[in-house]
UniProtKB/TrEMBL annotation:
<dbReference type="Pfam" id="PF00072">
    <property type="entry name" value="Response_reg"/>
</dbReference>
<dbReference type="InterPro" id="IPR045279">
    <property type="entry name" value="ARR-like"/>
</dbReference>
<feature type="modified residue" description="4-aspartylphosphate">
    <location>
        <position position="53"/>
    </location>
</feature>
<dbReference type="InterPro" id="IPR011006">
    <property type="entry name" value="CheY-like_superfamily"/>
</dbReference>
<feature type="domain" description="Response regulatory">
    <location>
        <begin position="3"/>
        <end position="120"/>
    </location>
</feature>
<dbReference type="GO" id="GO:0009736">
    <property type="term" value="P:cytokinin-activated signaling pathway"/>
</dbReference>
<protein>
    <submittedName>
        <fullName>Response regulator transcription factor</fullName>
    </submittedName>
</protein>
<dbReference type="InterPro" id="IPR001789">
    <property type="entry name" value="Sig_transdc_resp-reg_receiver"/>
</dbReference>
<dbReference type="GO" id="GO:0000160">
    <property type="term" value="P:phosphorelay signal transduction system"/>
</dbReference>
<keyword id="KW-0597">Phosphoprotein</keyword>
């Protein structure tokens, strides 16, 4: 199945969201902030999608996406941004800066798995 990078500074969220993805057969890599996520992306070629929280210490989800879009080896990886705080203007800005989709927290397992399926199918067509 897919190799997914899940990024959140809340260890409970990481555990809660990674379990159903792994149960569905996906390889899930974890990072607790955007800086660590960038290191994981650099060290693990073949990541097919990134699911990240917006608000994190050291490097936010938006900063991570902006960095990804600026590098050729990560520019086309789909990114799902999630946050418990959202406004229409904030979501619009996130989508303009390169997030593929925004979901408000709490994210349901069904929505998460549907996004992974859609993102990885899109990646396969682009390759």
């Amino acid at each position: 199945m897919a190799k997914i990078l899940l990024v959140d500074n809340d260890s409970i969220v990481l555990k809660t969201l990674s379990h159903p993805m792994e149960k569905a057969g996906h390889c899930v890599l974890l990072a607790s902030n955007g800086r660590r996520a960038w290191e994981v992306l650099e060290d693990n070629p073949g990541i097919e999608a990134v699911i990240t929280d917006l608000s994190m210490p050291e490097m936010t989800g938006q900063e991570l996406v902006e960095k990804m879009r600026g590098e050729s080896h990560t520019a086309d990886i789909p990114v799902l941004m999630m946050s418990s705080v959202c406004s229409v203007s904030a979501v619009t800005e996130l989508l303009k800066t390169g997030s593929s989709l925004f979901l408000p927290k709490p994210v349901t397992t069904r929505d998460l798995l549907a996004y992974i399926g859609s993102a990885t199918r899109t990646q396969a067509k682009a390759s």
